[in-house]
Design brief:
Elements: H1 2-24, E1 28-30, E2 34-40, E3 46-55, E4 62-68, E5 73-77, E6 86-95, E7 101-112, E8 116-126
Parallel strand pairs: 2-8
Antiparallel strand pairs: 1-3, 3-6, 4-7, 5-6, 7-8
Amino acid sequence: MALRKIKYLLVILLLLLPIKNLAQNESIYFVEREADCGIISKEIKSVTKQFTLMNESNQNITIASYKTGCGCTTVSYNKRKIEPNDSIKFYVTVKTEHKWGRFEENVLVRISPNNIPFVLCIKGIKEYAVVQ
């Protein structure tokens, strides 16, 4: 029974660590974390949204890693150090050619030096193609 309680406490602590990092690094943030593309015409094959990463801390930061939810989502950005009081543009592109109806794609971005996690979301509604 005691071992089970220790396991639960350990899991809770591991889940709270990123929250603590975020609270300490409020000066590193994405201006917006969600982009709504609205209704997308059936002829559109992809949509791209821009996210701005701000560094208002007193240290250089970099994008350590990112992970997309599926193969239909790609990212691009200038792979450089982001100096204090600087920003960088981070682009998320979703291929919508084979999507119909509502979609929502997420990208997990980790910022160094503290491995701070952010989740960016791009969503929209793709018009249905009418087959005759």
